[in-house]
Amino acid sequence: MTDLSAFPITGRWPATRPDIIQLYSFPTPNGVKASIMLEECALPFEAHLVNFASNDQTSAEFLSLNPNNKIPAILDPNGPDGVPMALFESGAILIYLAEKTGKFLPAGARRYEVLQWLMFQMGGVGPMFGQLGFFHTFAGKEIEDPRPKARYVSECSRLLRVLDGHLAGRDWLAGDYSIADIALGPWLRGLRDFYQAGDLVGWDQLQNVPTYLDRFLARPAVQTGLNTPPRP
């Protein structure tokens, strides 16, 4: 049997099947990128809930795998050259799993088209949508100064218009379904459904983004991954 005892995280979240990928996550827009990708690739994995309510993400065991205390993180017992691979950052995990399986990241010029839209999500959509959620839904709504929220509303609206224009005549961001779509879809769902910020950013005026999100959510692997690991 594979021995993962060298990784302290397995002391807090023991592996029932140490021979398969271990996922440490919570079903947030970033967290479900990894679970959706694992489901789409049909890779066997074991999901461990990192419970924010008990600050699991700041525990010594979790920090031993991700010193940045953010989910998701994975531990692959069958990493490159047969050596276990520990990895954090959702974008890096998507690229790793795509290269491991040969799925959802094409070769040649199309590879870089996928990667540019992945970076569009990582550098723009994720941070901006997340900040809007903070100021609209969470503690930031108690701040009386309207300028922070207005800034993020404006930038999120702009990013959605960029995306809406690009999706005209396209089913997916870069040709076939790819890791760029797996990265972006959960954030669109989060903005519309969890943050309930659609009215703020002009969701109903978008021509292509809503149907794109519907296509994404219709995928069986997406539906499973969105609830993995289950919320407490």
Automatic annotation (TrEMBL):
User: InterPro entries from the entry?
Assistant: Glutathione-S-Trfase_C-like (IPR010987), Glutathione-S-Trfase_C_sf (IPR036282), Glutathione_S-Trfase (IPR040079), Glutathione_S-Trfase_N (IPR004045), Thioredoxin-like_sf (IPR036249)
Classify the source by domain of life: Bacteria
GST C-terminal domain boundaries: 107-232
Q: By its UniProt entry, which Gene3D superfamilies does this protein fall under? A: 1.20.1050.10, Glutaredoxin (3.40.30.10)
One of this protein's Pfam families, by short name? GST_N
GST N-terminal domain location: 18-105
Q: What is this protein called?
A: GST-like protein
Annotated organism of origin: Allgaiera indica
Q: Highest lineage ranks of the organism?
A: Bacteria, Pseudomonadati, Pseudomonadota, Alphaproteobacteria, Rhodobacterales
